[in-house]
Amino acid sequence: EYTHQLNLKQPDKHDGVESGEDAEGNKLITWTIDYNSMALSSAGGDTIKDAITASSQEFMKYYGNVTVRAYPKGSNDAAWTYTFTPGEDYNWSYTIPAEHTTPYRYEFEYKTVVDKKKLNEAGAVQLHNEAEGPENSKDTGKIDLAGSSKASITKAVESSSTKEVTWVSNITVPEDGLDSAVVTDTLPNMYCSNIGLEGNYTLYDAYKAGSLKIEGLIEGQEYAGEPEVSADKVVIRFYKDAAKTQEGLVGVPGGHT
């Protein structure tokens, strides 16, 4: 004989929704849990738990309060509202008052905050949040987020002649800026094999002293001046301040080049 017991009071976790930013520009995500949606029986005494999954804890934690609303069956007007603050960053639980003998539909609403710097470093992530009700009934919500573009660099020939080549490199700086900005450029070269008595060797172009030009720096930023030049490389260092005490580049909203 087969018996199947249907749990009509399981939690229904909705996917996260972006809902603005905090004062530091970190993303805020709104999450909602519906419980006892059909309101066929009382949920008084039931405990609802919520947890940010382990893989998502690196990026987000709870932000602000959890609001609990109780709705009579068939109504969108809350008969009862309660607010509490999670005691921890990554999980909370709440027990519906035992005196709630009337069948209600419950809604739990709260926010998480996503660390902007870590999101930008990751580029794109999918974050998960899990709700659990009585009898191990569970449901998971998710949200896909993309950070600002990571730093990138391109290099191309602007002009050339039989005597020299002008190269242009563009650095894309993400909106969070860079704590270190050192460009190492390998000089154009040609591998020579079995030439005369010299055998195999690599022939490098030479950097033309004084030819470096930097454009697009945010006011107050600086670079080291003449680059560090070796037989095969050119190294350019950038600083966030005119005194050249803080390495890196300052970011602006949307990033810059």
Kindly describe this structure.
Strands 1, 2, 3, 5, 6 and 8 form a six-stranded antiparallel beta sheet that branches. Strands 7-4-9-10 form a four-stranded antiparallel beta sheet. It is built from one helix and 18 strands. The chain has one helix at about 115-120, and strands at about 10-15, 15-20, 25-35, 45-50, 60-70, 80-85, 90-95, 105-115, 125-130, 140-145, 150-160, 165-170, 180-185, 190-195, 200-205, 220-225, 230, 235-240. Helices cover about 5% and strands about 45% of the residues. The protein is mostly beta strands and about 260 residues long.
**Oligomeric state of this protein:** single chain
**Measured distance between first and last alpha carbons:** 70 Å
Shape: elongated
Indicate the percent of residues in helices: under 10%
> Mean pLDDT, nearest integer?
86
Q: Spell out the helices and strands N to C.
A: EEEEEEEEHEEEEEEEEEE
Query: What structural class is derived from the secondary structure elements?
Result: mainly beta
Low-confidence stretches: 1-5
Beta strand count: 18
Reported for the largest beta sheet, the result is: 6 strands, antiparallel
Count of alpha/pi helices: 1
Radius of gyration computed on alpha carbons: 29 Å
Strand residues, percent:
over 45%
